[in-house]
Amino acid sequence: MSNTPAVQTDGSDIQPLSFATSAPAVQTAGMVQLEEWAAELGYAHKIAQAMAHSNFLPKSLREKGRGIVKPIEEMANDAAVVILAGKSVGLDPLQSVQNIFPVHGQPSMYARTMGALVVAQGHGVRRMSATEEAVTYAVRRKGDDTWEEFTWTIQRAQKAGYTSNSKYGSDPIAMLGAKALAEACRTVFPDVLLGMAYSVEDMELEDMGETPATAAPAAAKTITRKPKAQAAERPTRPAQTPAPAPAEPAAQDPVANTADSVDTATGEIMPEDAPEAPVDFLAECETRLGDKKALGELGKQARAAGASEDIIGVITEAWKDAA
């Protein structure tokens, strides 16, 4: 008898190969930080959505520019990122949306907010002098004895091209003070501001963000309203001679239309010379037909801008007829 083991030909002797399973990848510190950021962004977005449905978001977060209101989701997305930017410098969500604004993809804040953050860290800020010709601020880091002064004069503002803004004529102390304080904080306390490149006063030169600028009222137009039964079709446009329509502006930062170029050496924003064109509320009305909420917002904007009663009436009729 042979001692050679019998060979199985039906495959029953074949055993499956076993592979050692690799251990799960170890998370790095960077991955953990990114996960924490993602979680924080999710919570910030929940807060931002509630704010977007309230009246506590400022104009710069509600509008794309030229009176065009953002969709609710876009408002919430922008506000969520602003909340995270504020958290990085110690602001709570409400403080963040009222004091930080996106400009050219970068966060900016009021000069007074910059000063408040610096003082909260124990550093020194003093206004040394203030006249309509010049404003000087002095700052020093905590523990230092030497104060460093920063001055903005009306001549410096003229040379930089800022005095084309009417605020330098009506309230030069506030404007020069904002420039001097922002420059002092950016120069001496970059660690406190964590990269806040601009102050809102650099960007919103016209009104410093305190009160929205009122658009010039539209010229008087003759508007023929359709009978009530036909109102559902579309609002009647006023009879007028057609004029070449300007190109529709691309979506932009809330205050991007107030700036023409950035001085890369100083971080200052140069104002554009041309005034902003008034909103064509009738054209906007036509684009929002059937959207009751959007028409309601447009009506509010028209009243705030001082539009004629005829234009407001057309928008109101379209709002009534919307589903």
Write up what this structure looks like.
This protein is an alpha+beta fold. Helices cover 41% and strands 13% of the residues. It is built from 13 helices and ten strands. It has helices at 29-52, 59-62, 72-88, 93-99, 111-120, 154-160, 167-170, 172-188, 190-193, 200-203, 281-287, 292-304, 309-321; strands at residues 63-65, 68-69, 100-103, 106-109, 124-130, 134-140, 148-153, 198-199, 259-262, 269-271. The strands form four sheets. Strands 3-4-8 form a three-stranded mixed sheet. Strands 5-6-7 form a three-stranded antiparallel sheet. Helix 1 (29-52) packs across helix 3, helix 5 (111-120) packs across helix 8 (172-188) and helix 12 (292-304) packs antiparallel against helix 13 (309-321). The chain is flat, with a radius of gyration of 29 Å. The model is unreliable at 204-221 and 249-275 (pLDDT under 50).
Keywords:
alpha+beta; flat; single chain; 3-stranded antiparallel sheet; 10 strands; 323 residues
Order of strands side by side in the largest beta sheet? 3-4-8
Please state the CA-atom Rg, rounded to the nearest Å.
29 Å
Give the SSE string.
HHEEHHEEHEEEHHHHEHEEHHH
Oligomer: single chain
Mean pLDDT: 75
Q: How much strand?
A: 5-15%
Outline, from the CA principal axes? flat
Q: Give the distance, in angstroms, between the N- and C-terminal Cα atoms.
A: 96 Å
Let me know the largest β-sheet: 3 strands, mixed
